[in-house]
Amino acid sequence: MRVLHVYSGNLYGGIESLFAAIARRGGGNEHEFALCFEGRLAAELAAAGATVHLLGAVSMRKPYSAAAARRVLASVVRGQTFDRVICHAPWTQGLFGGVIRRAGRPLVFWAHDVMTGRHWTERLARPVTPDLAICNSHFTGRSLAALYPGLTPIIVYAPVEMAAAGATGRSAVRALPSARSQERAGRAYRLIAPDQFDNVAARVDVAERERTRFVGEVRRQEPAVARIAQPGRSSAAADRWRRSTR
């Protein structure tokens, strides 16, 4: 199967790491990539031997740049035979999905984050319904209805290149501070899973509480006004502690 992946390419994070892994370990399929920007991603893909089509830098404040990139993509898609064309993220889907539709190629939308339908990139993508949707998790998949009601996604977890870590990677992980004293922005925090909240909250004292951050919480926990006593206190103490950190 010959697949074309379309994306902006001006950053480097999860989607870009996915592209690099696909380029190095394509699994028997032929993968090509269409990017708007040159940079680290384009260089890594080329180094892995993948074909990279550069569409040209796009700024939504400059409509002519988007129109020019669409024309380049249209030329790429119509001039070659692709079994699937995948738009990664709503920005790409909204900007280029119509081009792929008009070229008569099967359009796939790959979502990498939760969608609400309110962001301007999601509103841009909503009118372009894909033939197939892929989501990077069930959590993301449950939000797909905000863009495409009735479309059931396929869940594909991002590949991880375990061999690439090697001994050096493992040594680096072992060298990290323990979970109790991980350095976060110059201060040490203790990471606690949400399901351990009730057990920990009733025991943690003020000094420890300053360094406590719960996995999944966005805000930093600030010191409570009252001190939580020693282990064995009732759940009411945990309730007071919760209220004090809001």
Architecture overview:
- This protein is an alpha/beta fold.
- About 23% of the residues have low confidence.
- Helix 3 crosses helix 4.
- The radius of gyration is 23 Å and the shape is globular.
- The longest helix is centred in the N-terminal third of the chain and has 17 residues.
- It folds into two domains: 154 residues, Rossmann fold, CATH 3.40.50.2000; 68 residues, no CATH class.
- The N and C termini lie far apart (52 Å).
- The protein contains ten helices and ten strands.
Short description:
With 246 residues, this protein is of the alpha/beta class.
CATH architecture of the largest domain: 3-Layer(aba) Sandwich
The largest sheet has its strands arranged as: 3-2-1-4-5-6-7
CATH topology of the largest domain: Rossmann fold
How far the N terminus sits from the C terminus, by CA atoms, comes to 52 Å
List unreliable stretches of 5+ residues.
Answer: 178-198, 200-234
Mean pLDDT across the residues is 77
Main beta-sheet annotation: 7 strands, parallel
> For the record, what is the CATH homologous superfamily label of the largest domain?
Glycogen Phosphorylase B
SS class: alpha/beta
Q: Can you tell me the overall shape?
A: globular
Search tags:
246 residues; 2 domains; 10 strands; 18% strand; alpha/beta; 37% helix; Rossmann fold; three-stranded mixed sheet; seven-stranded parallel sheet
Task: Describe the secondary-structure layout.
Blueprint: E1 2-7, H1 14-24, E2 30-35, H2 40-47, E3 51-54, H3 63-79, E4 84-88, H4 89-102, E5 107-111, H5 120-125, E6 132-135, H6 138-141, E7 154-155, H7 162-174, E8 182-184, E9 187-192, H8 197-201, H9 206-209, E10 212-214, H10 235-244
Parallel strand pairs: 1-2, 1-4, 2-3, 4-5, 5-6, 6-7, 9-10
Antiparallel strand pairs: 8-9
